[in-house]
Here is the input.
Amino acid sequence: MECFMCKGELEEKRVDYMEDSDNTIIVIKDVPAKVCKICGEKFYDDSTAKII
Ligand SMILES: [Zn+2]
Here is the structure.
C-alpha cells in the first residue's frame, strides 16, 4: 500500500486521533494507522474508521 497523495511508503503506527466537532475535541489514543513517511498523511483501516 502506498500514499494516495505522494506515493510514499506507509508505516504502521499507533497515533492519537483527534477530532474537533462543535467546540469539543475528541481524542482517541493508540489508534492503529498507516502514516506516510514522506508527507505524514494518515490513513486509517476500515475497522478503525468504524470505531471513530
Ligand atoms: Zn505521502
Observations:
- The first helix runs from residue 46 to 51.
